[in-house]
Every structure is written in C-alpha cells, then in structure tokens.
C-alpha cells in the first residue's frame, strides 16, 4: 500500500571502518548475546521490518492472544518437520508464530530472528528490505491467521479477541421509531487533529449525535416520508479498557522508524533502570582537578553514567567526550592509550562492548563503583522502583512499561509515554485490553506458563547449546597470541636485535589466556624452556625497520595481562634484562633505532671528495645527537640538510642550523625513512644541482575544500576548512555543516567522501579518523553527502553491470562484511533490477577491467579480503564447477594464402556488428597490410577440466556447431592462441600439455588459427609473421609464417640468418624491423656489426627478448631486399594515417576535457546528481496455503 515510504533510522550504528585494504583478523562466529538486565528479548531488524517487530511484540505481550495460540497443538497445526512433505497439511504461519513467541519468552538471547516467520509469509529479501504501514500489516496478518486456522479449534481466535461492533441508531423525531444498523470492526481509525485528546476524537467520530433536518431530512419507513431524525451510536458501558501498547512512528510520511511502548501485564521483565542523571553531582564540570581530566577511565565512566540507558554507541561516546572536555580522544589520549576501541577492549573488567564492537556500556559492578566514586559515596545508582520483587506488584499505580526498539529493550516510566503524543515521534497505533481481565497468580513472572511441552523442551535444549557455545566463545575471545623472541637466539648489531640463524628458529608462538597473570605467563615460559638458567625478564618488543627493539619491561606478577595492557599478537622478548651475547641492550622508546637514508659525497683513494653522492642506510638511536651523522660517515664536518617533502619521490631540502646539530633525531622530527644530505661547507648546493635537485622552502597547504552534495539549498556551494594532518574528520564535517549553513540534523546523518580528480565520489571517511589515518592530503576536495559511513562490520562497495564500465557510472551499496558472495550477488541484482541466476561477480582490477571471478560463492566477503571502496562487476553467465574452465572459443583467420580454410559464406572477412566478429574497418590504399586489425569470430564456449590437455581442448572446440562449417582434418591442424585486447596474445604450444600448466585463469579466451600442415612447436621455437616489402612502394606482401629456432640464442644475427635462409637472400643484403602496431612504427633490428661498434655491451643488448624489442610469438617482422630497394624507410601509408589520427585524437581529448572543466565549473558530477526517485508503491501480502 505505501511502498518504500519508511526508511530505517540506523542511528545506533558505528562508523569506524574505512576501505584502506587493511587485513582484519577473522573472528569465529559468535553466539547471540544473552538478554540484558530487563530479561526481555528484542527482535532483530531484517533491514526494513521495524513495523513487523513492533506488531509482533504487541501480540506477544497480549496474554490472551499468546495463550490462545499456544493452546493449538501439533495434532491441529501439524509439525514443521513435515512442511516439505507433499501430502502433509502443515499450518506453517501459526507454528512459526508459536516458535517465535517461545523464543521471546524463554530463549536466552538479546534478540530473536523473524527470518523463519517471514519465510512462511512467502516474503523475499526484497519484502524484508521494504517498509510498510503497521496498521495495514495488522489487518493482513489477522486475515492470514484466520485462513491458516480454518478447521481448527482456533478458527475464531481473531474474531473472539479483536472483533467489535458499531451499532448505528436513527430515531424518528415524529413517530419515535428506532432503526439500527450494525458494522463489524477489528480496529478503529480516528482523526486526532484539532482535538484535545483521544476521548474527544472518539466522541466526535462515533458517539456525538448527528441531526437530519432542513435540506438533509431522513426517510422514515414507518411514516413513509422525509422527517427530522437523529443518528447516534450506542455506548458500551459494560466494559472499561486499559491502554497496554503504543506503537510509535518517528519521522514523516516519507521516512522514519517504528518502535513500541508495551505494558508488561504478567511482569515477565525486570523493571529496573538507573535514576535520572540530571543530578549536578555527576556533571563533568564538578571534577575537582586537572588530574581527573587526564584520567580517561574517570572521564569515560562519567560520560556513560550520564546515559539513562547506560548504553551508547562508541562513536557517540567519542563525540560526547569531545563536547564535554573540548578536545577529541585522538588529540588528548590516543598517543598514550591508543585508539578508543582498543582502550575499551583492554579494560573489559569495566566496559562491556557488544559483539560487533559498535556499542559500549558499563558493567553493573563497575557502574555502581563509578557512581559511588563520582558522587562521593552518594545514594546507590540502581534503584528498584518497587519494594516487592519484580513481577509481584500488580498495582495500577505501578505499571511496568518497556520501550522495545527492534533488538533493544529498555524500561520506561508511564509519565514519559505522555510525551510521545506530539511532535515528530508520536503515537500511531494503540492497543487496549478490558480492565476487568484478571491474570492468574501462576502467570505472574512465569514465562513458562501455558507454553506447550514440545516448545519448552526445544527452548531448554537451545539454551544448553547456547551456554556451551558462549563458554567456547569466551575461551576463544580471551585467548590471544604472543610471539616469544628468545634472547639466546638473537645478537645485537647495527643498532637493533637480529636472529642468529632465522626468524623461525628464534621466535615461538604461544596461545595464552589474557585473564591470567604475568606470573602465570612467566611460569608457563619456564616450563616451555627447560634449558633456561638464571633470571627471566619479559619485555615488550616491536619490529622496526632496523630490526627488533626492546621497549618496556613487564613488572607486577600479580597483575593480569589485560591490566598491564598486553595486546593480541604482542612481541615478547625473553632475556636476562641486561645483555644479549655480551652486549648491553638499550631499551625504551627514547632510544628506538631509526633507519635513515644518508646521502654523502663519495671519497677517492686519495681521500678527496668526489662530485658524486652515495645513498647509504644508517641506523641511529632516536636520542642521539644529529651531529653524530658526521662520525658515522667518517666526515670531519659539513652541512646537514633534511628532505622535508611529504610525498614519496618528491624532494625539498632544508638546511639544519649549526646550533640544532646538538638536538636529537627525535627532537628534529626525523622518523624511519627520512633522508639526510651531507655536503661540505664550501660546496654550496653544487652537489644538489648536479643531481638535478634544488632546495625550496615549503609553503604548506593547511585547508581542505568541502562541497555541499546534500541536495539542500545553501548560500555556499563549497567552503574551505582549516585543518592539520592530526585533525579529526568529525571536526571537519561539523565545521563544514556550520559554514555551509545547513540543518543541524545533518550532523547525525551525513558523511564526508573524498572526490578524485575525475569528480568521482570515493568511499566515505569514518568520523573518528584523523586526516593522516584517512590518507587525505591537504588541499583535497571532500563531498558532504547524505547518509552515514559504513560501520566497522560493513563494507561500502561500488558495483556495475558488465565489463565495459565507464568511470563514474557505478552503483553503490553497503553490505555486512560477513555476507556471502551468493547473497551479495542477489542484493546487487535486485538493486540493478536484474533477474535470473546466470550471473557471477568479478572484482575490478587496477586497470578498470574485469579481474578474477569470486568463485567461492559461500565465502564471506571478509574472507576474500574485500575492503570498502572495492568495485565488483556483475557479469552474465554462470561460473563453471571448481576445477573446470569455461573458455570462449574464437576463430582467427589471419590474412594470407590460407583461403581454402574459409567457410562457404566467407564470413571471416566480414565486419560483424552484433558481437559475433571483432573487426576494425581497414584503411584504403593499404590492401596488403597484414598489420591491420585482425578478425575474430566467436564460435561458442567450451567447459573443460583444467586437467585436460591442449589437444583435448581443440578436439572439444571442433564439436561446436559453429565449427562444423570449417573443414579441419584434425586438432593438429589448429594453432591455439590466448586472446588479449581483442587480438591473439600468447601462443599455446605442446599438444599434450595440461591446461592447468598454462595457468590460464577463469577469464582466458582462446582463438584457433587454421594451418595448412601439422605443427609441433617446441619451447625454443618462436613463430613470427614475416612480410617482404614491395620494391618502389610503401606497402608489403602478404605475411608468411616463419618458425625461428632460438636454440643458438635470441640474437639479431641468428634472426637475420634465419630470415635470409627462408627467403634465399644474402644475409648482408637484407634489413629487418619489428612492427609496433600500437604506435604505427617500425623498429629496425641492426646487424651484429652495427651493434658491436656502438657499445661494448653486446651480450646485454644483443638479446631480442629484452628491451627495446621484446620479441615474442606472433610479432610482425618487415623485410627489405637491399638488392631491389635501398630506401631506409619501413613505414607505409597506413602508418602515416594512423599516427595522424592518434595525434588528432589526443588533441581532441585534451580540448574536450578542458571544455568540460570550464562548463562544469570544476564541480564533480556527483554534485549535479538529482535525488533518488522514490520507488513505486508496492502492496503488502502474506501467502497462505489452503486448509479448507
């Protein structure tokens, strides 16, 4: 009915993943999280099912509905195990609803899944992603249940519980005759505009008397004429009703989200929550001194305590921290404590991260302790709102209400519900129960009440399995890997530690429980190393470019590894704490070795400096003076310059003042890979100018340009935001919104996306990254776009249909990184409006072409190392089975004397416009130029095992229907080439070699060339197309194949002798040249005498496999007979035309690009893209079988 009206609000998702190709550590699939403190279960959102979740929770918390459904046993409904049997009558919808309600009552998980239920509805993934109106769903679901329960004792379930009747009375004013009419209803729709409350709205629509008089008289059947009358509806005075469910809609007509407030009639949940944190004692402003501000534990605890739900997304935690103390986590704490998420992980005894690490809360004990610390032993944080145990107080004055928002369940006070009847978040659908309905005492706080035995047993077994899975997962999550480096296996030289033999023998991998103490770790290592004698010191070490360096010695055997902040994959150096191999080892970050590139003048044997620079690596401690470079390079004195350029390959040298030579390398800001230049004091910059380099001062760009791409009106289209490499992206985004004068709401629903030089929008940048982490350069352009960046567990992917993709035409999609290739393909097909199962995915390679196929359809995208920003291509055609190749076969007919192999229709000489033949139009005046574009005709696909031979591939190709028109005696009369850039590429030789050995890959295409006689080329043979130049003309004869035996070497002399023998000409009377078709040029191959007289490097240069010839199979060799033609020119008329066209094309391309830039005002195309049109409205339906 409403199509795609309502868009989900994913405000709780995290934005900390950015596609930079990082390799992530794969986690085992974790079991669902247990229920939170409310002891109630939410329902997971399938993408657009918030409206369904809200209605299902309401029905589940309706005791009369739930127990009526549970009263129907397998003898009436059937069994889910029999649903696939053809003759079985299984009422799947009520069975799945029973099972879902049992899970919500008894299964210890944070949120249940509705996947099985929606499958029973007959919904596809498209239905699960599309949103609908909850009232429409209520009517359709009730209708489906009525149909499903036909013929059972529950056939009248909906009618019995929800049926109502409106009685309309019309009383004649003259004869007093009463006419009554009854109307049935399941729900009532009321207009609430311009009324003071719901009672007034009901009165106006259903109770208020309507008078028929004057021009609107009533025809009375008794009086048999038009009379005055009054119409009214009967009041139901027998019952009073209590509100127990309010379904809330947040947003407008074209976007929003549903959640529900529900009264827990049976007190199944734990109605506890933290008191209102409006008490000023908890405010951060009251922290007593700067020491508390410097303690991140204290700050984070205080921020979390200010959250009423004690739950917040990690990104929001960072933003609230910024708001409270005026500086971001990255600026204040990251250098000392690392990233925010890592800090929360290392303090798992205080903070509880969700399984996907997107949200965080305080552990219960920690929250009590933190509250006590901050309030200075003030009142207890958690307070039960009733003195009696939860579930035993059913007084009307203390109802237990919960806010159920998909997976999250939170307690809410009754007074807070009144606020939801106004504004953007308002009540949409109300559910009532008769006030007189009483619940039996045994139902109070008893989730097992009236649940069928078979469901009780299923849930008990599932809970046991969950406990086992969580125990295993807990053990796995608390184990981490340590790399032990054994001191006796290392030696110290060149400023760092290096293995004596090999890295493998010097390092041991150890899996250890991070909850154990340092003493336990030391004892375990003692047991592993039976040979160890003396003291054992454990130190944290790290690999730096210079080698292994020892940083921090671990102390406190009573502390756990978490408390001393040992990370997963940490390198631990095991030694005596003093020396290694008799050499005292410097330890600590102050003396971290730096690997620097030092350029210094070379010295001659007479110790005189030469005008040549030597680039040598040197290792220095970070705390050494810069002047120590002179000693290391054995140079008495001079001037030191440092390369201050940011980008690799650029140079911008600045001189270090003499007084700064006493500074340390760290104080000067040098790091690994920095370059220093030493030159004599009186050299000036002569050495630099000899190397073509110069000294410049750096005028650093300190801003970024942000363009408004949110499709919102603004006074400014773009603004410049001042920033440094350490500025956080969130700060830039907020500043841009303010300076562009856009709505504040964009702060919660926007992101920044880099714009490349072609105007293409790249992957969104996470808010918590610095510009350096995001690899953004100063002066870059960013687009402020609607929508949030992908979370840490999601991937932002580009995709397109087909392999011929133009930059900027790709579509975009955000998917979970755990989604399989098969499911990702389905989502992309749906978004592209395509159907069918004959499609597969390929990753686009670096040259914007289709790369290798994603063959493992069940593998997760994360396992295949896909990252945000990657481009996938939807390619038509199913992938062959594993171990098989699907090879397109083409017929290749080179121009030459082999006319008798042509088909009767002579199709291979035609230009085929529908894709069956690739052929370029030939140039006139060049009838004999074989280096014109080749002609390939598509014959069909061959599916063949990789273990088959090349001969078997040819034999199978000969069975293709299109091949039958060619009269080929046997496979030996066929020559096989790979197809590269629509022309023959690599020649496949050796008839009996297996295809696997050729390493063809899934994208390989093969073209077959007919031969006049059988051919058996060996590895030393090279096939060349030779053409004799026609005397007196700028043209060549038809090509003739020449097989060159390179057993005697790839020399020019060997090739010249072979060509001369083939054409029966004296070797000194021929000239040969290789044709370069992409340049329309000929590259002469000089004779041996010419080669040796030029340089004394014959052995290196006289190899035609190397540069500049790179001779290979299929190359064209032009030959001139000097007896008949002494012209030095090898080119043809066609070459002249081709070069002119290339120049014209390059010039036109430059002009069109310049014109496009002027016309667009340098605004990327994304800025002009109109808003995505809303999809057509789609009806909502539930498919039910026939049970009549």
TrEMBL record:
> One GO term of the cellular component aspect?
nucleus
Instruction: Name all USP domain ranges.
Output: 41-435
Going by the UniProt record, its keywords in alphabetical order are:
Hydrolase, Protease, Thiol protease, Ubl conjugation pathway
Output the superkingdom of the source species: Eukaryota
Task: Cite the EC number.
Answer: 3.4.19.12
The family database entries (Gene3D superfamilies) matched by this protein are listed as:
Cysteine proteinases
Family, similarity comment: Belongs to the peptidase C19 family.
Enzyme class, top EC level, equals hydrolase
The GO terms this record gives for MF are: cysteine-type deubiquitinase activity
Mind telling me which SUPFAM superfamilies this protein's record contains? Cysteine proteinases
Lineage start: Eukaryota, Metazoa, Chordata, Craniata, Vertebrata
Protein name (record): Ubiquitin carboxyl-terminal hydrolase 40
**Biological process (GO), any one:** proteolysis
- Per the record, where are the segments of Basic and acidic residues compositional bias? 1151-1160
Q: Which residues constitute the signal peptide according to the record?
A: none
What this protein catalyses is: Thiol-dependent hydrolysis of ester, thioester, amide, peptide and isopeptide bonds formed by the C-terminal Gly of ubiquitin (a 76-residue protein attached to proteins as an intracellular targeting signal)
Q: Where is this region: Disordered?
A: 1148-1188
The record's annotation in Pfam families points to: UBL_USP40 (PF25822), UCH (PF00443)
């Amino acid at each position: 009915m409403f199509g795609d009206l309502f868009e989900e609000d994913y405000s709780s998702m995290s934005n900390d993943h950015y596609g930079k190709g990082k390799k992530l550590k794969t986690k085992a699939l974790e079991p669902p999280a247990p229920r939170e403190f409310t002891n109630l279960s939410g329902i997971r959102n399938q993408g657009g099912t918030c409206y369904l979740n809200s209605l299902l929770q309401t029905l589940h918390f309706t005791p009369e509905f739930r127990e009526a459904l549970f009263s129907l046993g397998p003898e009436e409904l059937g069994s889910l195990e029999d649903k696939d049997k053809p003759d079985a009558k299984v009422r799947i919808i009520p069975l799945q609803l029973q099972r879902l309600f049992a899970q919500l009552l008894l299964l210890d998980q944070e949120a249940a899944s509705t996947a099985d239920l929606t499958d029973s509805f007959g919904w596809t993934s498209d239905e699960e992603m599309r949103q609908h109106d909850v009232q429409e769903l209520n009517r359709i679901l009730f209708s489906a249940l009525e149909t499903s329960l036909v013929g059972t004792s529950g056939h009248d379930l909906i009618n019995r519980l929800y049926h109502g009747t409106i009685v309309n009375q019309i009383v004649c004013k003259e004869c007093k005759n009463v006419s009554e009419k009854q109307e049935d209803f399941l729900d009532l729709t009321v207009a609430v505009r311009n009324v003071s409350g719901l009672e007034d709205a009901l009165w106006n629509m259903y109770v208020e008397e309507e008078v028929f008089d004057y021009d609107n008289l009533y025809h009375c059947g008794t009086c048999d004429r038009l009379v005055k009358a009054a119409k009214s509806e009967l009041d139901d005075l027998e019952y009073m009703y209590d509100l127990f469910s309010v379904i809330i809609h947040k947003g407008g007509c074209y976007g929003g989200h549903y959640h529900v407030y529900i009264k827990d009639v049976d007190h199944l949940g734990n109605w506890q929550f933290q008191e209102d944190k409006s008490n000023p004692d908890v405010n951060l402003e009251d922290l007593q001194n700067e020491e508390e501000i410097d303690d991140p534990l204290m700050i984070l605890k205080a921020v979390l305590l200010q959250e009423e739900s004690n739950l917040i997304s990690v990104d929001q935690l960072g933003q609230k921290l910024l708001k409270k103390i005026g500086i971001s986590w990255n600026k204040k704490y990251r250098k000392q404590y690392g990233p925010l998420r890592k800090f929360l992980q290392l303090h798992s005894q205080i903070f509880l991260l969700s399984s996907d690490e997107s949200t965080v809360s305080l552990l219960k004990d920690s929250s009590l302790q933190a509250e006590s610390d901050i309030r200075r032993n003030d009142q207890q944080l958690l307070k039960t709102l009733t003195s009696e145990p939860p579930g035993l107080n059913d007084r009307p004055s203390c109802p237990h209400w919960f806010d159920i928002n998909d997976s999250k369940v939170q307690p809410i006070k009754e007074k807070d519900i009144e606020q939801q009847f106004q504004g953007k978040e308002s009540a949409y659908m109300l559910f009532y129960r008769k006030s007189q309905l009483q619940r039996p005492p045994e139902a109070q706080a008893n989730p097992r009440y009236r649940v069928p035995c078979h469901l009780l047993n299923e849930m008990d077994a599932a809970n046991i399995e969950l406990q086992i899975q969580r125990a295993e997962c807990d053990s796995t999550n608390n184990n981490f890997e340590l790399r032990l480096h054994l001191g006796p296996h290392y030696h110290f030289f060149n400023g760092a530690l290096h293995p004596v033999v090999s890295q493998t023998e010097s390092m041991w991998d150890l899996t250890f429980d991070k909850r154990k103490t340092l003493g336990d770790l030391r004892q375990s290592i003692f047991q592993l190393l039976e040979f160890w004698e003396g003291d054992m010191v454990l130190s944290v070490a790290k690999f730096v470019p210079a080698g292994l360096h020892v940083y921090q010695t671990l102390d406190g055997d009573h502390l756990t590894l978490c408390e001393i902040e040992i990370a997963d994959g940490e390198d631990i150096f095991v030694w005596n704490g003093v020396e290694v191999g008799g050499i005292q080892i410097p330890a600590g970050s102050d003396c971290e070795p730096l690997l620097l590139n030092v350029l210094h003048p070379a010295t001659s044997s007479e110790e005189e400096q030469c005008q040549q620079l030597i680039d040598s690596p040197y290792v220095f401690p970070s705390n050494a003076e810069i002047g120590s470079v002179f000693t290391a390079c054995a140079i008495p004195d001079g001037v030191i310059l440092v390369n201050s350029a940011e980008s690799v390959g650029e140079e911008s040298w600045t001189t270090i003042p003499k007084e700064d030579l006493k500074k340390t390398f760290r104080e000067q800001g040098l790091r690994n890979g920095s370059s220093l230049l030493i030159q004599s004091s009186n050299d000036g910059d002569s050495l630099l100018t000899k190397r073509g380099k110069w000294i410049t001062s750096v005028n650093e760009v300190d801003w970024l340009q942000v363009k408004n791409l949110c499709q919102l009106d603004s006074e400014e289209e773009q603004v410049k935001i001042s920033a440094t490499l350490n500025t956080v992206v969130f700060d830039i985004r907020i500043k841009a919104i303010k300076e562009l004068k856009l709505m504040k709401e964009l702060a919660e629903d926007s992101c920044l996306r880099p714009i490349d030089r072609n105007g293409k929008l790249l992957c969104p940048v996470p808010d918590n990254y610095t510009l350096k982490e995001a690899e953004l350069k100063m002066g870059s352009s960013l687009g402020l776009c609607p929508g949030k960046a992908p979370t840490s567990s999601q991937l932002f992917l580009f995709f397109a249909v087909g392999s011929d993709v133009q930059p900027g035409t790709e579509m975009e999609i955000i998917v979970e990184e755990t989604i399989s290739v098969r499911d990702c393909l389905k989502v992309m097909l749906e978004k592209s409006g395509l159907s069918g199962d004959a499609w597969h995915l390929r990753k686009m390679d670096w040259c914007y072409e289709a790369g290798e196929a994603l063959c493992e359809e069940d593998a997760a995208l994360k396992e295949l190392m896909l990252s945000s920003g990657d481009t996938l291509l939807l390619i038509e055609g199913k992938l062959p089975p594993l171990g098989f190749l699907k090879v397109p076969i083409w017929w290749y007919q080179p121009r030459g004397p082999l006319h008798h192999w042509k088909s009767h229709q002579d199709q291979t000489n035609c230009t085929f416009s529908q894709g069956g033949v690739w052929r370029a139009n030939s140039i006139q005046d060049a009838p004999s130029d074989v280096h014109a574009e080749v002609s390939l005709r598509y014959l069909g696909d061959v599916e063949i095992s990789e273990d088959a031979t090349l001969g078997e591939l040819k034999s199978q190709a000969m069975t293709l229907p299109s091949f039958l028109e060619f009269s080929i005696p046997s496979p030996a009369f066929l020559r096989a080439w790979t197809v590269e850039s629509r022309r023959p590429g690599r020649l496949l030789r050796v008839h009996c070699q297996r295809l696997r050995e050729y390493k063809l890959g899934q994208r390989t295409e093969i073209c077959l060339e007919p031969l006049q006689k059988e051919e058996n080329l060996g590895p030393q043979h090279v096939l060349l197309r030779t053409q004799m130049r026609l005397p007196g003309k700028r043209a060549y004869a038809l090509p003739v194949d020449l097989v060159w035996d390179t057993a005697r070497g790839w020399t020019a002399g060997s090739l010249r002798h072979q060509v001369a023998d083939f054409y029966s000409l004296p070797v000194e009377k021929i000239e040969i040249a290789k044709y370069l078709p992409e340049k329309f040029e000929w590259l002469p191959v000089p004779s041996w005498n010419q080669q040796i007289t030029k340089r004394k490097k014959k052995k290196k240069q006289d190899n035609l496999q190397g540069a500049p010839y790179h001779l290979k199979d299929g190359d064209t060799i032009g030959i001139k007979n000097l007896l008949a033609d002494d012209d030095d020119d090898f080119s043809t008329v066609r070459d002249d035309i081709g070069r002119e066209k290339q120049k014209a094309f390059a010039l036109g391309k430059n002009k069109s690009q310049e014109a496009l830039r002027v016309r667009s005002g340098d605004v990327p195309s994304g800025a002009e893209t109109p808003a995505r049109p809303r999809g057509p409205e789609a009806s909502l339906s539930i498919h039910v079988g026939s049970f009549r």
